[in-house]
Specification:
4 helices, single chain, 5-stranded mixed beta sheet, globular, Rossmann fold, alpha/beta
């Protein structure tokens, strides 16, 4: 009986602890651009904390394939002064929202406007991806 109670208490604390301050950890993000731009942007993203795990991608087509394969959840394309943030609505609309919110302070800091592009959305009849439930 004491063992069952201990397991129940441990479960409750792990559940509450895990949901008390939810934020992403290590969301994979690709970076497309010149080698110097990739290096600088990856360093900037890494300084922001552990919510993103940036890596370079050779081009937009490769990064889009990685999004489609769920290897990365978003990617940044820097082409001169134009910056596109490409996010996937699937597998989680939450990831897209987190990526969009994370760029707000960077936009203000750099005085650059990012263009957010949504790819691979959920079907219109299941916009939140809750079909399996």
């Amino acid at each position: 009986m004491a063992g069952v109670l201990a397991i129940e208490v441990a479960f409750i604390f792990s559940y509450v602890g895990g949901l008390s301050h939810p934020y992403p950890h290590g969301v994979p993000v690709g970076v497309v651009g010149s080698a110097s731009t990739q290096h600088a942007l990856i360093a900037t993203i890494q300084r922001q904390g552990s919510q993103f795990s940036p890596a370079s991608d050779p081009d937009s087509a490769s990064a889009l394939r990685a999004v489609a394969d769920h290897t990365i959840d978003a990617f940044v394309v820097v082409n001169g002064s134009k910056v596109d943030i490409v996010v996937s609505g699937s597998p989680s609309p939450v990831v897209a929202t987190v990526v969009e919110r994370a760029i707000d302070p960077v936009e203000k800091q750099l005085s650059v406007t990012f263009n957010v592009v949504h790819v691979l959305p959920f079907p219109a009849n299941d916009p939140e991806g809750l079909g399996p439930f």
